[in-house]
Structure formats: structure tokens, C-alpha cells
Amino acid sequence: MRAAAVVATGLLVSGCAEYMDMNSDAFVQKPGQQERFYMDARACELEAENQRAYQLRGIAADEGERHRIYSKALSACMTSRGHPLRVHWYNLWEGYSW
């Protein structure tokens, strides 16, 4: 019974990953660059929101796809500005292959 509850909880939690927006916590902040990191994060969040809200693909998408569009745009922007994706167990599990 306990094993079934653990499996059900795991499935529930893993399914929630698609229904959350990625944020700046998912990226590595280099020492001594706090102000630059926060400025880049805010600019990238605005860019990702614009891609989700103003492109036809984002407007017509369901909620899961809208979150993926946002997360993909945020990831591309942050990594292009020199902030690599932080490695967590769920990054390795999903692979983040957008």
C-alpha cells in the first residue's frame, strides 16, 4: 500500500513539471555577478513572456504547451547571456531537450 502511494505521488509530481514556468532559479549565478544576473533574468523573462503571449503558436496553445514555450525561450535567452542551466536530478531525468 505504501509503495503504491509513493508511486502515485511520484507520477503526480513528475506530471506537474510541465505545468510550471521556469524561472531564474533554474540557472547558475556566477559569483560577483548578482546585479547582471538579475537584470538578465528580468530581460529574459520579459522576452519569454512576449514569445508566449504575442506569437500565434503561444496564443493558440494549451496551458502545457504555453509553459513549454516560455521555458524554452527563457532557457535560450539565459544561456545566450552566459548563465548555464543548473543541473538537478529532474534536468537529467527529462534531459531538457527542447
Flag low-confidence runs.
Answer: 13-17
Average pLDDT rating: 79
Structural class based on helices, strands and sheet pairing: mainly alpha
Series of H and E elements: HHHHH
Radius of gyration: 16 Å
Shape: flat
In this structure, how is the largest beta sheet organized?
none
Number of helices: 5
Number of strand elements: 0
Strand content: under 5%
Number of domains: 1
Q: What is the first-to-last residue Cα distance? A: 37 Å
Task: Using brief descriptors, characterize the structure shown.
5 helices, 98 residues, mainly alpha, 65% helix, single chain
Question: What does this entry look like structurally?
Answer:
By secondary structure, this protein is mostly helical. The protein has one domain. 65% of the residues lie in helices and 0% in strands. It is built from five helices and no strands. Helix 2 packs antiparallel against helix 4. The longest helix has 21 residues, at 34-54. It is flat, with a radius of gyration of 16 Å. It starts with a helix and ends with a helix.
The gist of it:
By secondary structure, the chain is an all-alpha fold. The chain has one domain. The chain is built from 5 helices and no strands.
Please write out the topology.
Elements lengths: L1 H15 L17 H21 L1 H4 L3 H18 L8 H6 L4
